[in-house]
Amino acid sequence: MRIIEAEFAARLASGAATTCLCWRLRRADGFELAVTEHDRALEVDGVTYQPGAAVEAASFSHSADLRPGHTATGGALAHDAITEADLASGLWDGANVDVIRADWERPDLFVHVWSGRLSEVSRGAAGFEAELVSLKAELERPLGRVYAQACDAVLGDARCGVETAAFPGQTCDQQFATCTAVFGNAENFRGFPHLPGADFVLLGPAASGNDGGKR
Q1: 180 class by beta-carbon count within 10 Å (0-12 exposed, 13-18 middle, 19+ buried)
Q2: Neighbour-count burial of 197, counting CB atoms closer than 10 A to its CB (0-12 exposed, 13-18 middle, 19+ buried)
Q3: Model confidence over 82-140: pLDDT tens digits?
Q4: Strand 70-77 relative to strand 96-103, pairing
Q5: How far is 39 from 52, CA to CA, in rounded Å?
């Protein structure tokens, strides 16, 4: 839910407000860029937004539940700070984004529109292209490991440790028996081979009549 000050809401309702979008981007290395689609610099809430953001209109999705919001955007975010080299090296990937809509005649009046991050920024035919991913999407990001009998490493990667050159043409089925007998790599097995399976969970009382109760 967006909270709009009464004075700003009144100006919007009367048609007197002249608004523009302002973008504040913060990279993981600490570099920050504040730009606006307006044709002159604007100081809003202590931040100076420089002109040069010709971003195609994006529909910022909001939902009352925990569904993540995604929106694709593109445009010529023309600014000397955004270089081809930085785009190619991925410095802008994952940058935090805050978007506000401000009244350029009354920059003290503004409303927060959207917060999220840039995902997979690249250079397109008309400028940069990126997907804006809302903060809710972080709730979908997997954390930790899945407990399973099979190994979740990839043959030859750092977690596996097997030198694939010593086993030409060999594949791995992620099973403990294969890891031990074929590769001799039991100490690096990344699964839980002794984890009880579904058969054990569904197993009923023993035939001897032991019902599991205390004797």
Answers
A1: middle
A2: exposed
A3: 777 887 788 888 889 888 989 999 999 999 888 888 776 666 665 566 667 776 666 66
A4: unpaired
A5: 7
